[in-house]
Amino acid sequence: MTAPEPTENSTAQFARDVRSGLSNKDQKTLPAKYFYDDVGSALFEAISVLPEYGLTRADEHLLRVHADAMAARIPPPVVVSELGSGTGKKTGWLLKTFCQRRPTVYYPIEISSGALARCEADLRLLDSISIVGLQRDYLDGLREVAARRATAEHILVLFLGSSIGNFDRNASERFLRRVREILQPGDSLLLGTDLEKPASQLIPAYDDPQGVTAAFNLNLLARINRELGANFELKHFQHIARFNQLERRIEMHLRSTIPQTVSIPKAGIAVTFREDETIWTESSYKYNLEEVARMATQAGFICDAQWVDEEWTFAESLFIVR
Ligand code: AVI
After folding, report:
1. Deepest in the core among 22, 214, 256, 301, taking most CB within 10 A?
2. What pLDDT is stored for residue 114 in this prediction?
């Protein structure tokens, strides 16, 4: 994931979201989507190769090992569209299989021009592929793919890496329903979800001893300093990762270690923190296989197949439109 240059509009939106999240009386929040500026995207890449964080490796391993079995369940002709293309490495395994069957069009949908360029560079070496990057938000991009499809073509949507885990459970169901509304019978969605596992495995994955995840979380405050002229002193905030057993999610917070006031000129606010008060920056929901299959049904798909990595429990689920 790589962020685009901030435009005047995106800076204004960032300022509004920061103002709204930090003005919450009960629990201050910041939206996780703002992690991914250039620094944050580079830190996420580093997280994805940490020994403690098995999620990205499991996702890629499943795609590599089961690409043929996955492709075999989807009759040609297929156009492949990916929501949030990230690095093309893991998608390459699946695309290679489709391209071996017949020439394939791949539409990565990504808000960031940098990530799109990177993905095109990673994947253009495959034989028989045409890559059409769409710099849109997910649903707008998918509508465009649907509008361009030829009769008889089926769309396979990829939503990998458990990105859905960063939506809350209701929002993820709503999102899947909206994806379904754009698709037609015979289309499909391959969804990557991180599965439940012991807190003793999850906590080091989100609070690694090398401090990479802490730097990723703190970069959100550094970004507010850079883009909104704020004066957060990073040394007075501490990264925290908690497992919420009831909600089955990891929560990342930034804890103010002293009482302090921070001014954020471009958001037009000064924010006061009590000692130990936190900003909730991310939730990462964990699933079980049955609830993923249920989500498929509730959104108007059937869950056709699931592949599970046993080393780092993670699932790829193939949803077909009924
Ligand atoms: C992108 N997303 C699925 C990651 C996750 O595990 O929730 C983001 C992340 N946050 C901390 N580490 C990785």
Report:
1. 301
2. 81
- Does residue 20 contact residue 28 with C-beta atoms inside 8 Å? no
128: left (phi over 0), alpha (psi -120 to 50) or beta: left
Looking from the CA of residue 44, the nearest atom of ligand 1 is: 13
Model confidence pLDDT, tens digit, residues 135-178: 999 999 999 999 999 999 999 999 999 999 999 999 999 999 99
β-bridge pairing 314-321 and 301-309? antiparallel
Question: Any bridge partners for residue 308, and if so which?
Answer: 315
How many alpha carbons fall within 13 Å on the CB side of residue 191? 30
| Cis bond upstream, residue 77 (ω within 30) | yes
Rounded to the nearest whole angstrom, what is the distance from the C-alpha of residue 153 to the centroid of ligand 1? Answer: 33
**Pocket lining: 283 vs ligand 1, CB cutoff 6 Å:** no
Looking at ligand 1, which atom is closest to the CA of residue 166?
Answer: 7
Give, for ligand 1, the residue of 2, 33, 195, 284 to mutate: max count of ligand atoms closer than 8 Å to Cβ.
Answer: 284
